[in-house]
Amino acid sequence: MSATTGAEAEACAGASATEAEAIADGSVVLIGVRHHSPACGRLVAEAIASLRPAYVLVEGPADMNERLPELLLGHRLPIAVFSHYRDESRTATSWTPLCDYSPEWIALRDGRAAGAEVRFIDLPAWHPAFAERAGRNSNRYADAEARYAEATRRLCAHFAVDSVDALWDGLFEAAEPSGLAARLEAYFDLVRGDAAADPGDRAREEYMASWIRAARARAGGRPVLVVTGGFHRPALRSALGQEQEHGQEGDGPADWPQVPGPPDGALAGSFLVPYTFRQLDAFSGYQSGMPSPGYYQLLWEKGDPQAAAEGLLRAVTRRLRDRRVPVSTADLIAARGLARGLAQMRGHHSETRVDVLDGLAGALISDDLDSPLPWSAGGGLRAGSHPVVVEMVAACSGDAEGLLHPDTPMPPLVHDVAARLAGLGLADPGQAAAPVALDLTAAPDLARSRFLHRLRVLGIPGFTRVSGPADSADPVFAERWEPGSTSGREAALVEAGVYGARLDEAASVALGERLHAAGTDVGPLAELLFDTVLCGVGALSEELLRGLADQVAHVPEVAPLGEVLASALGLWRHDRVFGVALDGLLGLVVDGAVQRVFWLAEGVHGGPGVDRGRLRALAAARDALLHAPGLLSLTRQDAAAAAARISRDLRAPADLRGAAFGLRWALDAATGGSVATGGTAATADAEAPADDPAAAVRALTSSAPDTLGDWLAGLFALAREEVARGTAAGGGSLVDVVDGVVSAMADDDFLTGLPALRQAFAFFPPRERERIAERLLERRGIQASARSLLRTTADPLLLARAADLEENVARTLDRYGLGAQR
Amino acid sequence: MSAPATAVAGTGGEQPQRPPAEVSHAAELAALRAADSDPRPPGWQLSLRAARRFIVGDEKAGITRKFVGNSALVERSLVTLATNRGLMLVGEPGTAKSLLSELIAAAVSGTSALTVQGGAATTEDQIKYSWNYALLVSEGPSPRSLVPAPMLRGMSEGRIVRFEEITRCPLEVQDCLLSLLSDRVIAIPELDGPQGMVFARQGFNVIATANTRDRGVNEMSAALKRRFNFETVFPIADFDTELALVEAEATALLRRSGVEPPPQRDVLEVLVGTFRELRAAAGQAQGERMSTVMSTAEAVSVAHAVGVRGWFLRGEPGNAADVVASLAGTAAKDSPEDLARLRRFLEQEVPRRAGRQWKALHEARHLLAD
């Protein structure tokens, strides 16, 4: 008994302003909360206990109202209400996450337990009011005020803190509980200020107000508790207050407002899905409210910020020690001292999350950092963050995973997959015995393949691909899938339900997550590109491919980038199987990669040797310039100018210089010299005709004869045809010049340069080599068969033995980790 | 020789070229001290909160913002100094590390003059103490013949000592700080009795700065590292803040150089944009790192040069062409690699940007001499 009265007294003391308004407002108590705030959660619990309201109204999708019992089945939190919508013009998915300490969750649970009628009162997630929110995948409980940054920026400046989260913790989470309600109110009044909300927010606020009016009319003087985002509270208060002035109180209709239904022909729905703390955490890059759910869970459980701070310190220490990062007792003493000092200086009642993290960072990190600490800089964890920082953020984030009660209806994805499985004529993997063989050139089989690939990228067990095209250049048109173990299939489907209601949606969201994780790592990016193609490129992959194009523009190495470019371009030009030829989005990837190739190529400096990777990258860029100029924002003139600069840059490696030379030639030949002469670019480089190869070769041999082969390899890799056909200016004479130079070489130089020369001429097929041989004979005035020059006179057995020996040497080198370039 | 360095403040008469922080902000410090009611750590002239306000500013109290950077960094630094660990400020050159250490020392101890400038030739004498040899020879070792260096003075007076560019000192010299920081005592074996041990008074601590370019921070012994808390000072994260700072500083410098027109804002935008772009590229790939530091301080000096060129050569404000010409000399210094990187940026990146000044910058790229 005493506990209840204590809580009541405290609630009254804390919420005195609210109480006073409640009476004036006709018993409507509005609590403005920050989503996922334990302090707000506690406030809501106290208000319910003290008010015993007849109605508890919560900001949440009103179309879930009929299924509220589902929410209270007894799940392990965090879970989320997942909503999806699709019509001809728009696809949207959104999440409404709930965890143990969410004020909304507490309102639902405690309200129901206290015998109140509980209702969600916000517009359904598919409603156009949400359409203006950034991104196709949104979070209802993201901070509304984040969209009105000006006010919070001023507040941060006023309190001299670096982020809203730090400000919030100091003012509310770790502050004295008394007066919390009044402070919250003042805070949100200030944040809302006189900012005009956008039309979406206004529509939602009007709708919520209509529910509150109905509840007030039905309650007949009994209290009504309303829990909404603090940002909406001032608007709701003034909407209700105005009516009172006009004497409308109690006259309003007692019927609940209509829940708008989706327009005809549109598909919409909401389902429960299990959620994780990782997804809740803003640090991992999700759009969300408060960061570090693990810490706030601790704060909620302990109920005392000081205990939570100590728990966080323990969690971080344990995590770091588990990962063998030395954390000495002296370090911990220093960290504690710092945290306490910071809390005191910042005027915190007890240590907050940021105090503890700052203290730990100060004491544990004895290096310079590459990027600012994520909790003070805001934004996500950047690539290359200090390992201690990464572990600290992970410890704050926690690893809780939600679990739905077994009686919860399955998420729509489960039904969607089952329906498609039947629709595509594929047997359930549990019963199927025979492998599935697919001919990708046939439309029905392609649909099946896409379906199976989407399951694959979602990690749903059942079918395993045993053969099929390995990459975009693989000329394989058949695929084979074998049914395998189905254990865990159901659970995996439920889990994947968080990504979307339909398989194609879910797959694209899952791929998007992989893109986020891949960073600028080319291997995963290339794989991702091909997986996207295998799963079917459509409207859904737009964001995905845009993201991919963005990330490609930051890849640090030219050779692997070339691979991505070549495969994207190949698909764009030739693919008839997957239906992505001439796809505009794929074109974005090509464009991004070409720009990046030139950027990187101009920066490569180095010594001798032929790097085929970078030659291939330039060749791919050439192909893009020649065959897909419409895709590129880089003009041929600009490309030619860049190539000219590279070819003259003495610090660039010889092969690259040759390749750039060849690129310029190839561009010249393709446009009939228009690049060289008719270009509009004002650069002197692009207007000048391609340099004379003879001069280049002579210059090269006089300075570094051993790089001639490298240079030629680059040239031939890019402009072999032009050289062989002798179409470009001076093309015919090139062979003569090289012949002259090589004949004049000293024996030593010749031997040094020979392997590279051989490698260079290997770019020519036998027929063209024969033509070169003919020309050489002609130059010497000899009548003989050119072909005989290309034939070796050595004993084939001897050659075989030599090859064998070479292979042996290579293998031995490999064994000792001395693997030579092959 | 033993005259206190703080005498600079009292001499009056001629204005020093650059007065130390405690002199140029004397009024603010006095006001803060008078209004300061928060608890002060022993030996401190200001409370932690007042010291923070002195550095990050407080509009209402008329305190200007002196350090543009995140305030959590300032808070952590101050709290560190109130503990028994030293403060190590690390970061790229030109990120205002020295300014920050000067401000902190001025706020905490009332003087920023106890400074050891680290370098290859720094010896233990310059850190702890040396002797007036004439007196030493005539009177033998005595407190009178002792010439205290900044560390000894800081310890006996209970003040903050600044150690600039600590990683440029040889390891063995750095290590003389070890006992000093952990035991907080300097032994002077030449003196007998109690005078032979100088114990640190409350208020003594060390702020060291090290830049991540000249020589890695790795060249510090683990033992010494352990006695410091590290704080990394970053370049200014926000474009507008950096632009405003460059504009303010460059305008002041130009006025002092007798240049009448203030710098054009759109030209500065292009300049700061270029600096930020080249700095950002450094973070991405190893090969792209500029060896020159593209710091805000450097941007200010380029903006200064741009204004001077424009005014004294043509009688007008500096334009984009001046930016290119000045970048070649100041930003690319003597590194051909950096010059190539700069050229590549002008050739390939700049044309993709919209705006009249960016276009002008691209067109002026030939001014980047080979």
TrEMBL record, chain A:
Pfam family, any one: DUF5682
Family matches, as InterPro entries: DUF5682
Domain of life, per lineage: Bacteria
Chain residue ranges for the region called Disordered: 240-263
Designated name of the protein: Uncharacterized protein
Taxonomic source organism: Actinacidiphila bryophytorum
UniProtKB/TrEMBL annotation, chain B:
GO molecular function, one term: ATP hydrolysis activity
Gene3D superfamilies referenced in this protein's UniProt entry, alphabetically: P-loop containing nucleotide triphosphate hydrolases
Region of interest (Disordered), ranges: 1-24
Designated name of the protein: AAA(+) MoxR family ATPase YehL
Ranges for domain AAA+ ATPase: 83-238
Domain of life: Bacteria
